[in-house]
Design brief:
By secondary structure, this protein is α/β, with parallel strands linked by helices. Helix content is 42%, strand content 20%. It folds into two domains: 198 residues, 2-Layer Sandwich (Nucleotidyltransferase, domain 5); 108 residues, Rossmann fold, CATH 3.40.50. The strands form three sheets. A seven-stranded mixed β-sheet has the order 3-2-1-4-5-7-8. Strands 11-10-12-13 form a four-stranded parallel β-sheet, sandwiched between helices. Strands 6-9 form a two-stranded antiparallel sheet. The radius of gyration is 27 Å and the shape is elongated.
Amino acid sequence: MKYLFFDIECSVVSKVAAKICAFGYCLTDEKFNILEKEDILINPQGGFHLTDRKGTQGLVLPYEYSDFKKYPTFLEKAEKIYALLEDKDTLVAGHATMNDVKYLNFESHRFQLRSFAFDFADTQFVYMNRIGEFSRQFALGTIAEELGVEFTAHRAVDDAYATMKVAEAMCQAEGLSFPALIEKYQISLGRIENYEITQTTSAAQIVYKKEREKAREERDRKKAAFHVFADKEKRKRAKDGKLKNKTVCFSHPLETDLPLAKRLLSAAFAEAAWFTYHAEECDVYVCYEDENGPRLQSAKQRARVFHPSEFEEYLQKK
C-alpha cells in the first residue's frame, strides 16, 4: 500500500464555490519513504480574493499570483489528480481533509466532470482521537510544532509534506503503521462519491457527541427551570432597596447553577432590582471569574460587573 498526503490552496473560497490554484501532494510507501512530491499549480481563471476563517483578515499565499495565468487549468490537470486520489492501492489523507474534498467537489461541478470517488483519512482527526480532544480544531502548524515538523504554511506541497510528517510522527510514537493507527482509534474513513461527502468518524467522537448533547439538554432544562423561578419570584420584588431602578442580568452559566442563581435573584428582588435576560440592557451583570464571552463584553459597556460572591456580599451589606 502507498500513502498519498495532499493539500489544496484556492484563489477564492465561498459557501458554493472554490477555485483551486494549487494541488500539492506527497506520495510515500508504507514506511513514509517519499516516492513522489509535487506542487501542481493551476490557473484558477480569476483573481485572488482570500480571507481567514472569520471572513475578515486577508490570507496571503506564498506564491507569485501573476504567474498563475501561465499554468494549466483544473480541467487540464484533472486526469492526473483523479488518478492520484482514486488509486485503489493508495490510502489518501490530508489535514482537515473535508475542506479539500469540498473544493474538489466544487471544481468537478464547475467543469462538469464526474464525481471524485475515494476514501480519505484526516491526520487532524487522528490527532484529536489520540489526545481525546474533540471540542476544537487543531491547525496543522500547531500539531507540526508539537511534533517538531518544520514547513512553509499555505504552500500546498509543503502542507502535504508536513501532513505526512505528522502522520509519520504519530505512527512512530505508537509503533504502528498508518492503517493500524487508524484502526486502533476505531476511526471510519471519510468518503466522496456521487458528489456526496461522508465525514470521518470514530467511536470516541460518537461518545463525545452524545455526552455533549446530554450536557446541552441538561443546561437547557436548568435554564428553563430558572426562567420559571424568575417569573414567579419577581412578583415578590420589593418597592424600595439599594437596587431600586437598577436592572440585573446573570450570565448563562450562572443561570444553570440553580441553587446559587435562585438565592442571588431572590436577594436582588428583595433590594428592589429588576431582572433581564438581555446583557446589553442591564446595570448590574453577575458572572463567574473565568467568563469572557460576548455577553460579558456587551454588559461591560454600561453595567457594573460582579462575581457571585461579590454580588452576594454587596447585597448583604447594610
